[in-house]
Each structure stands twice: as structure tokens, then as C-alpha cells.
Write a structure and sequence with these properties.
By secondary structure, the protein is α+β, with helices and mostly antiparallel strands. The protein has 2 helices and 8 strands; from the N terminus they run βαββββαβββ. It has an 8-stranded mixed β-sheet with strand order 2-3-4-1-5-8-7-6, with helices on one face.
């Protein structure tokens, strides 16, 4: 059911500095941005390879610890997987919903409280058209 890791997400303190590092230094490509409903910036997607991204979230804080937000697994059939996990008694941190990028997702937490996202990619999503 799981196809692979789709993206890894980080909160960043200085978006320009992070974009310079990932795009100019490492040679990755800025793919697209998503905005809050009020139009303010929310996430910048960096394309690593076909179907593989890093999400950079605005609003990070200075800290000695990296600010990992979550890991996302791309899946073939999100509804079937959601039902299977519910049948196993796995509590959902966020129920199945369609995101701003048109993809379907749901969220759970691992035993240590780390957020895990499961996503079925919509053919019309910006990830498929970047």
C-alpha cells in the first residue's frame, strides 16, 4: 500500500536563507508555495526528484534541536489504508481530508508522538505538475 516517502518537513527560521541553501547550494528546485486562507505564506516545496520533496514551513524558532515537523508516506489507496488502520485500533490525529494541494491525507502519531502523514496524490496537485 505504501509507495515510498513523499516528503520530509521542517520549520525554518529564515526562509530566504533556507531557499539559498537548498536551491543554490544543494541544487534542488523551488517547486511551488502554498498560502494560508488569508494569503500569508505557509509552505514552500523544494523538489528533490520526481515525486520527492522537502516542505519548508515558515515560523521556525532558533533552537539547538532540529525542528522536524513530520514525515509523509505516499500511498496508492488512502481510503483502504485508513480503514485498515482504524480496524487495528490506531487513533487518528487528523481524519481523512483533502488538503489545499488537492491531495487526500490523514495523520497518526507514532508511539513517541511523532506525526506521520499518509497521502494519496491527486493528478491535478501541484506536486504532479511541478
Amino acid at each position: 500500500m505504501i509507495k515510498g516517502i513523499h516528503h520530509k518537513a521542517f520549520h525554518v527560521v529564515d526562509m530566504d536563507r533556507s531557499l539559498e541553501f537548498y536551491c543554490d547550494t544543494l541544487g534542488f528546485q523551488k517547486a511551488f508555495e502554498l498560502h494560508e486562507s488569508d494569503g500569508s505564506p505557509w509552505i514552500v516545496y523544494i523538489k528533490i526528484a520526481e515525486g520527492s520533496f522537502i516542505e519548508l514551513f515558515y515560523g521556525g524558532t532558533e533552537s539547538e534541536k532540529p525542528q522536524l515537523d513530520h514525515i509523509c508516506f505516499e500511498v496508492e489507496d488512502i481510503r483502504t489504508l485508513a480503514e485498515q488502520l482504524k480496524e487495528q485500533g490506531i487513533p487518528f490525529a487528523a481524519d481523512l481530508s483533502q488538503g489545499k494541494d488537492l491531495n487526500w491525507q490523514f495523520w497518526i502519531k507514532d508511539p513517541d508522538g511523532n506525526w506521520l502523514e499518509f497521502m494519496e496524490i491527486n493528478p491535478e496537485s501541484p506536486q504532479m505538475n511541478s
